[in-house]
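Table S2 (text version). Query chain:
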Amino acid sequence: MNPGKPRFLAKKSSAFLCVYLWLIPCSLLAAPRWSIQFLYDRADSNFAIEDLQCPTAQHCVAGGLIDDRKGHEQGAVVVSSDAGKHWSQYEVKERPISLFFLNDGLGWMVTDRGLWSTDEGGRAWTKIYSRKGILQAWFLDSEHGYIGGLKGMVQETTDGGKTWTKLAAGEQVPDAQSLNYELITFQGPHGIIVGAPESSTPALSNVEEPGERPERQNHAEKKMALLETSDGGKNWRSGTFSFDGELSQLRISERGYVISLILYRDPKYPVGSAVYETTLGSRDGRIIFAERDRAASDIALLSDGRAVLATVEPPGNSTQVPIPGKLKILESANLKVWKEMDVDYRAVAQRAVIAAPDAQNIWVATDTGAILKLVE
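Corresponding structure-token output:
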């Protein structure tokens, strides 16, 4: 091999290099990389992906809003059934807000005017509930599910969404009608539904963490509602907690802890976001990620114990600049040390979401119309 001819090597495939450079382990030549699989690339319009769901390693559905320079808006979903190799785009009648899928076929879509269901993997949808203000849906099986939304909306169905009843635990919270229930998450039979005042989404405030915590200068603490079940929704208990900031994401780990992603929009805070780890049943936690030049957007907990974090590097000194920045994705094996991963240079965003059906298949979608997958 002539080391003075790098162009020759650049033209070779990784498989050829593994044979040609037999003294070097193949794993060193094929580091994982986030590669763009879908890109909405039109000069006259933008596809802001709101949510991404991948119930299996083969099937993914993303939903969001396409808007053009003339102010026209159109809801849309894109679907892949071959692990992201090919994507098909479909128009939907309303604006998608969030998605939830049980398997490759059965799923639900929250829109700005109601709740829709599909048994065709997102290719066709049927409206099952006409109501404004729904924010998220979560189904434990094809019949039993929950929705959360504005003005104290937290409801349950046991017939696949044909009828809905108020969740009694939500009515027991003080000032229930002033809360927005935006976050619903389950891990097996353990479920949590979070309600926050209309002015913001909550974040736990009574946490302890190593190092400097976000400063609180003249910030009045607010109250969030926490509805919790440990038996799959048969019984719920409710409570309130003091908080500041905004709770953007909540994940329950199989290992007995909760991960919360908190946004700090006030410039008086030293960071724009922070990720906390809290043991189930405890109100004390610790910061596991907070950087001044990274705005965290979503986190996924993998079955092998690793975690993947989607962040954005703002194009300035502030994480509040309303301009897309470089997408930065990090991983950690222990929730202590985070390693930056190789991401396609074209990937920019203000917000990104993660879908991880298993530890080997992980996707990230952006509000700029890109969907990336971690590939070798």
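Notes on Table S2: The helical segments are 6-10, 14-20, 168-171. The mean pLDDT is 86.
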